[in-house]
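Data deposition worksheet. Section B asks for the primary sequence of the deposited chain exactly as it was used as input, without tags or linkers unless they were present during the calculation. Section C holds the resulting structure in token form. Section D is free text for depositor observations; keep each observation to a single sentence. Incomplete worksheets are returned to the depositor.
Section A, Depositor: J.P.
Section B:
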Amino acid sequence: MEYAIRTENLVKKYDKGFTALDGISLQIKRGEVVGYIGPNGSGKTTTIKILAGLMKPTSGRAYVNGIDVVANPIEALRTIGALIEVPGRYDYLTPHEMLTYFARVYRMNHNGIDRRIKEVLEWVKLSDWEHKKIGTFSTGMERRLVIAKTVLHKPDILILDEPVLGLDPVGIRDVRELIRRCRNDGMSVFLSSHLLSEVAEVCDTVIFLSKGEVILSDSIVNIGRSVEEAVLHVKFLKPLSKEEIEKLRTVELIRSLDVRDRTALLHYDGEPESSAKILKLLVSSNFEVVSYGMKSAGLEDFYVSVMGDEKGVN
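Section C:
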């Protein structure tokens, strides 16, 4: 399988012996959306800059679409679109002017530039602003415009460093939808973000980085399964009476419980058979159950369990 992004023992050392990357090996499949997360200074932006051709590694190899980004940077960059850190501002240009300039940088066919600009502006919901000054845009609009620039030349791979940095909830939602659309259009997306909830929303796989090393890589589905607690989350039609709570305590399979109004958290052994038996007992005992399921922890809980004391994310 040819991977969208692949690195082999990537090492980056700075002055005074600081090692930002210490043998990073990544394999990112085509069409995947992969989150790259870790504490401040863990090496995420360094990795991204190497992949985007902005920095050379001390040793090791990095490939995009099978192309060595150090040996053939121009060829490699034709296949990627990159948003790295805070983009520059183009206040006195219009989106049409800005995108025309970058289309020429990308050496796009002159005859198709205007049509492609209209396509990407429609894609990011900025069609009505094509000839308005960018200086009048909100932060969310600017970020959508930069993403339009990133996909202007129809790249196979998107590399995004903190794509929702500084955005309000509406802007974050818009960028989330754009990332999903990129995936649906067959693009591979590699992104770093300090918002773990957003990573969980849009990514297929998450790579955890710490002190320049990959410490874990797994799918969102598997991570979700691994952090399931042996706790059943039950909602009842009405608040439970003291008698009903005491009745629950007598159920042998329930080790302990926490009840608040119409909701109960039932701690048990985690076995599927036990869960089925508890539900059957509740129904046969005339408890009016509205919903019933295992309580799952989120990506943030998993991050803390993996990183231990390294709690900062950037």
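Section D:
The longest strand covers residues 19-28.
Residues 169-184 form the longest helix (16 residues).
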